[in-house]
Request: fold
Amino acid sequence: MASMASRAAAVTITNAALDKPSHGSSGNLSQRSFVGLRAGLVLGQKKENLSLSFKVEPTSRISMAVAVDVSKFESVTMAPPDPILGVSEAFKADSSPLKLNLGVGAYRTEELQPYVLDVVKKAEKLMLESGEFKEYLPIEGLAAFNKATAELLLGADNPVIKQGRIATVQGLSGTGSLRLGAAFIQRYLPGVKVLISSPTWGNHKNILNDSGVPWSEYRYFDPTTVGLDFSGMIEDIKNATDGSIILLHGCAHNPTGIDPTAEQWGTIADVIEEKSHLPFFDVAYQGFASGSLDNDASSVRQFVARGLELFVAQSYSKNLGLYAERIGAINAVVSSSDVANRIKSQLKRLARPMYSNPPVHGARIVANVVGDPSLFDEWRSEMQLMAGRIKGVRQSLYDALSSVDENGKDWSFILKQIGMFSFTGLNKNQSDNMTDKWHVYMTKDGRISLAGLSLAKCEYLADAIIDSYYNVK
Ligand code: KET
Reply:
């Protein structure tokens, strides 16, 4: 009742201000009233002020009109579209037959159709046949998944696993696992800064911001060489306050497609150790960099072998094509099983009020595929097939660019990049031209997902890139 009165009062104030009382004539509860009321809400006028100064008899019609037409949320502004997932929304809205979605990193077949791995279908069939339950999982997730995912990351015979020095908690894919890791940092390492590469996957900043974790950037990409700014990276990691957290892409760096060499990883580990920093790996593309699941985990394994403590977020969106299942994990590799157990207990404590416990379906798929030697072999072959198709279109795009380009620019950087993406070097205006004129949807930082490209479209894409690069500033 009190709130009804104050809403009606708010209307009357508005009309008083306009010299036009409206109660009793609500059939025409004027536009101006609503405008005035909105203004009042936006200005954040206090309820007490309103009801003190103006006494009115609220009528039910007025109250109804206010409740329907004026929201408590008038001050909520429209959020900008997500720089990556928003591209898919814009793509859907385009009716041109030429359109090409190279925005999100999602694997497509040569026919540009979404792909469900055969090995996933097989695992799902087995699951259906065995009639598994749908009850809650424990907070930390499916035990068989957590075992399989740690083994896939470190290698099944890694001593860290035998020693129980790894805490693994199933997460809501890569993003949710990073978010849980960030929540842990916020609580147990408050104020410690996370250093992220410049550039990085855009959502890293959002995750850290929303978790209340401070961050800054380290140099990573050198536009003049279109390669790694290794000395800049090392210098920035050296200059960070001792005990900072260094976020690293385990393989297939997004968006640049440029990874450190094994030797460079060694130097990065040296500096991190010297400075007592904590490495935090984001492993979202294991298998997609080289086609080999083991090779792509070598950066993390190298750090672990040196005895460093570290965090690793994993995702099965890309390598098992389980985008919508939201399956991944957060792992903490630490100095003793005792610390691992305590960290795990705290990760569970953080997860419980966030989402209670994770979904089971994707976890079972991963556990079945990784845990069954014949399905695992099959996965490895399919993984190589996917990575191979991307390498094929990478080569074909390079060939097409080199043959179309009359100015003879060296496009070979495209061949040096690895993983799902190519970082083309196109600026925002040029990327806009790709979309507006050529219906090629991509992120505005010049990244294209080669996983969404077919051999048949390489020439068209090369024409679009050449036009945008040379004709748009
Ligand atoms: N880390 C990195 C580096 C990454 O590129 C992604 C996804 C993720 C984590 C998280 O993926 P998840 O589906 O939560 O496991 N990147 C692609 C999709 C996205 O932006 O969400 C992309 O860059 O297109």
Q: What stands out?
A: The chain has 19 helices and 13 strands. The pocket of KET is lined by residues 84, 104-105, 173-175, 201, 203, 249, 254, 282, 284, 315, 317, 323, 328 (CB under 6 Å). The longest strand covers residues 166-172. Residues 373-404 form the longest helix (32 residues).
